Amino acid sequence: xxxxxxxxxxxxxxxxxxxxxxxxxxxxxxxxxxxxxxxxxxxxxxxxxxxxxxxxxxxxxxxxxxxxxxxxxxxxxxxxxxxxxxxxxxxxxxxxxxxxxxxxxxxxxxxxxxxxxxxxxxxxxxxxxxxxxxxxxxxxxxxxxxxxxxxxxxxxxxxxxxxxxxxxxxxxxxxxxxxxxxxxxxxxxxxxxxxxxxxxxxxxxxxxxxxxxxxxxxxxxxxxxxxxxxxxxxxxxxxxxxxxxxxxxxxxxxxxxxxxxxxxxxxxxxxxxxxxxxxxxxxxxxxxxxxxxxxxxxxxxxxxxxxxxxxxxxxxxxxxxxxxxxxxxxxxxxxxxxxxxxxxxxxxxxxxxxxxxxxxxxxxxxxxxxxxxxxxxxxxxxxxx
Length: 385
What we know:
This protein has 13 helices and 2 strands. By secondary structure, the protein is an all-alpha fold.
């Protein structure tokens, strides 16, 4: 029987005894692509360590810290793989409350970082700076999946879209107040992707898109800080203010152009950019590994997204399918915006590049999400084809 069936996918209802854990169904390709992307991230952290004042193996170097976060991320990946994902649907609303509480704590007690001025994004836990807004991306995927799975019979209703927006509201506002424009955009992009993949009405999604566009002047005037407006305007006025708001973009484009087809070699990059370990790490990668090295990374991202969607479809469980689609939407949105802002096609919004950006919270969150999807693989019914 062809896998391209015309009839809709039959989804089984949730039951703790619905499926037993079967390691034969573990998706090796998904893990392989993720590990290869992590290795590229380690290579970029190593290069940034050599280029900075640190020695490569000193305790505070980007390479050592990224290596430590990689170990933590792999442990989280294994734990979430072993954990029965079906309980996440049961506890979706308590997870939502925990997520909101963590964002409130971050807003009240978090310390500022970078050039964000009054931002409150980081909480120090056991000597590590943790960004709970990164964790919020994964937790909200679980919450959205739980909400949409319970409303599958009414997925075309406008009230489903409105309800999803209401669910998004409190975390989105708390993230914006930090202020963290990048994460707030990722949350919106993830929800839109999940609504689309769940089969929500295109008419209501179009209405949502027009409503968001209509709200842009309000957000611009009341929610964005001056430095955020300057970053967005730098996209429209590239080349102006090269020592101010346009400096990051100018340096990033210089680095990309300097790489050529093959790159200057790992650790041999000479163009220095603000936040080149985090938001602008793609500029370092493009300069040192060149166009072909960059394309290898992009192919890995495409392969990872493909496996996410394959695992989602094969799960046979609406909640699991939505979790996989949410992860794919989140990663796709972040890759598109991060690479786009480095090459001057998207505004600078502080969105990290999954796996490649130096940052423990981002890596741990993404690997935790992939572990949840592997958990759905291990507990799904054996395929009939």
